[in-house]
Please model this.
Amino acid sequence: MDSWRFLDYCSDGRNHIHDWYVVQDVRVRAAFDAALLALAAREDWEDPKFEQFKVLTGPHSGLSELRLNLELFNPKLRKFQKRRFRPAGIWNKEDRVFIFLVGCEKSGRMYIPANAFDMALKRKADLEAGIGALCDHV
Amino acid sequence: MTTFNELWGKLAESKEYREEFVTAQVKRGIPFQIATLLKDLEISQAQLAERSGLTQGVISRAANPNYGNLTLNTLIRIAAGFDVAFVGKFVPFSELGRWFIDLSEESVKVKPFLQEDRERRSLSESKASFEAELAAHAAVPAPLDADYYANSISEKPVKWNSLAEALNYYQGLHIHHWFRDMPLGGMSNSIESSFNGGYPSNLVNGDVFRKHQEKSKVRRYMGKADSNIPKEALRA
Model:
């Protein structure tokens, strides 16, 4: 079975996911990259035991989120610290593609950026209206 | 899709990146394999817990990359539960990179010992029966051409020390047969060498073959069959 492919939504000459990715700490970038490689290899994302992916409902219906809890080593504190990332996008099961619309971190009950899912919905609507383009996530 | 070179470029970015990538491999790669094996071997977390001597909660956390801090003891017990080996070793980053790039559920599937053992036994049994069959055929060669074999095959019983030797023999028979029916003018050094090379010497004693050899020598020394022979040799 083919592995999953990740795509980024780009508009106004910018890759929004890449812009979010490059400002993250190097350890976050490494853990995020490794998490995506492992996710791409996972065949069945609908398995109820598979907790790294969720199809959103309610006001954010039509979107899906990746639920990546990364344990990052903090050299100053000499211990691992947990951080939760919730990048949102469009899940296309037939083509085995996940389109990133927005990068997002969850801290407590807050999302960073706070309007991440509304932004994702707007980008989804733009994409469906033919605004913007998709490129491979690197 | 990430290529190896793209990943290598990121690994070369900084030591911190590499450190975190290794952490992620252990924390995500191992749970990924545990989840894949549970699915492939069709056993539940509770069954694996029982076989491993662990609780179902421990297995659940071990199979979920978002939780848990797997200890070596837990991994060893899980390996025992699956009846597979666990190899923890230090490797260069190129190996880690390739592992990640080629990662798929298929690539991490492992056979439990009993299944592996069954397959090995069945393979060696079929190999032994094939060898026995070959040996039985070799003891009494089928007379493809009675007159020809009466002249060409020695009376000595033929025994094979290995499968490869037996296969060589049958290959040799085929070439010999074809060679016998060939017009002399078409013979070349390469055919001769392949013939002699793959053929037991006790079969190269038939009248027909000797006749071919002698005629061939005459033609060669006359310079008709092989133009590669040096003129000095022809004169001699």
About this structure: Residues 4-110 of chain B form a domain with the 434 Repressor (Amino-terminal Domain) fold (CATH 1.10.260.40). The longest helix of chain B spans residues 113-139.
